[in-house]
Every structure is written in C-alpha cells, then in structure tokens.
Amino acid sequence: MNDPILKINNLKVSFQSGKKRVAAVDGISFELKDGEVLGIVGESGSGKSVTSLATMGLIPSPPGNIDEGEIIFDGKDLTRFTEKEWRRIRGNQISMIFQEPMTSLNPLFTIGNQLLEAIRLHTKLSKNEAKIRSIELLKLVGIPRAEGILKEFPHQLSGGMRQRVMIAMAMACNPKVLIADEPTTALDVTIQAQILALMKDLNKKTNTSIIFITHDLGVVAEICDRVIVMYSGQIVEQGDVRTILKDPQHPYTKGLLKSVPDLRGKKDRLYSIPGSVPAPGTVQTGCRFADRCAEVFGECRLSAPELYETEKIGHEVRCFLHTVKERSDKDVRVTS
Prior knowledge:
By secondary structure, this protein is an alpha/beta fold. The chain has 13 helices and 12 strands. The radius of gyration is 21 Å and the shape is globular.
C-alpha cells in the first residue's frame, strides 16, 4: 500500500450554464494507493460524483469539460487520451459501480447477455469461456443459483441482487481500480451491510484499490483506510480515517460527525448543519463554508484558505482555524 496506483493533480472540471462556465470541481489533488480503500465524503453538490466521472472519462462534453489538471494512471495522463484509448482502460483497468443498478442495467437484455458482453469486450475469451467466467463472478459476489440468474432480466431481481450483479460486472476484468459511487444508497440496512462486507472481501482477495463515494460516515468507518471530505468542489480535509473520525479539524467535518445518529443518546432532534451547499461559482471571496460555519471570523470572509498540513502525517485541512492554532509554534506549511 505504498505506491500510488492513481494520482490526481489539481483537477478542475467546469460546466456551461447559460452564458458562463461554473466550476464543479475546483483544483483537487489526491492519491490512491495500491490495495487501498479511499472514501470520498460530502453532501450532494460537493463534487464527489463529478470527480469519479472525470476519473472514468465520462464527463459529458458539452456541457462539461476538464479545464486543468492531470489524472495519472499507470504512468500515463488519462486527460490526454482519445475516446478509443479510454475504451481500452474503462471497464478493463478502471471500473465503476453506479448508484442505481436499475438504471445501469439494460432492462431488455438478460443478466447473462450483459455480463458476457462486458467480459468479451475486454478479453479474448470464447462465448463458452465467458459464460463460465460469468458464473464464477456471480458466485464470487454471493449470488445463489448463479446459472439460473444468467437467464433472468434485471426486473426479476431484488435491489440487492442487482447491485451484486453490477459489482460482478465491474470485477469482470480484474480491474486495478474500482470506483463505487454510493452503491448502497437505495438498499435497506441489512443488504447495505452485506454489500459492504462483500466489497471488503473483494478488496482483500483481489487487492483491488477502491474509491468509495458516499455521504454516510458510518460506511466510511466500516470500510475505508483513508478519507477525503469534499465541500463545494474542494477538498476541505483528508487523512487517515481514524484520525479524521476521532479528531476532525474542519468545522464542516465536525458538523457531519455531529449529525450522525447516536444510539446511546436520547436526543429529540438530530443535529443538522444550517444552510446548504452554495451553487457552483456563487462564492467569489473568502471560505466557501463561511456562511454555514459556527466558528467563522474576519479572515474567513476576506480570503480563501489553502490546504494546510497538520502535525499528524498525511492529515490536511482547509481552514484558517488551523493557522491560528499553529502561529504561536511555527509557520504553517501550505500543500496546495
């Protein structure tokens, strides 16, 4: 888990909105290590899914565009790839599990047809060999009577079964990187637990690196090694999952943790962060979280904070509160 398999440098993605372009992702940088499970957390509109789509080369153009930055995979910058080159990488070396399996699976074709197509598109297996591989994959993701499932259509399966099929499809070519975009959102709690256990098991068995996109910090605590917290298109905090869950430094991360239900408590109402994520491009000066922050002070509204290193290795936070804390000891190091 030392060498990065995927490296994103200063990624900026914008979309055309009327006569102006607005930034959905604004200069994010991170690494995914070999065999690591990396969580990306944030509210709707924070830029999580746009980041994953950019990593897969799936930003619709127009209206979207990667304005700046690099996506380095296997020593190559994917932002320079043609669509033909992307097809060799996408689904083969980098795969994605989408949020809603019913809209991702074609309702007109059987599970077998769709699995076989995914396998034969990227491998030289014969039809019979691809069928054997499909059955192996369905068994790998815990689906009973795998051979019978190949003949069924998506609508004949439950939500949990469809999501398992999506995971099997994503794992068909033994990808090096698997991106899971909120794969448990539409599932009930018991099925969620099964899917999370399945993904942890696949990570251990195949050493596949996983980017797990979610808004649920409980899921992050369960499955991830490191976590990135995103807000309004930027990374506001990142580091080891234990460090961030035990000692969050950014007021937004603290707010997310406070809003997680505690079974031991007897609160009448759950905590919620006041306000909502600003629309892309609307915050021109200062910190993007300032209007919702309980700890805001003068400097926050005048200039935008950088991503600062804390005293803990690999832990970074985008907040002036950290600079106030550090000024008495030493100069703060800016990392991006």
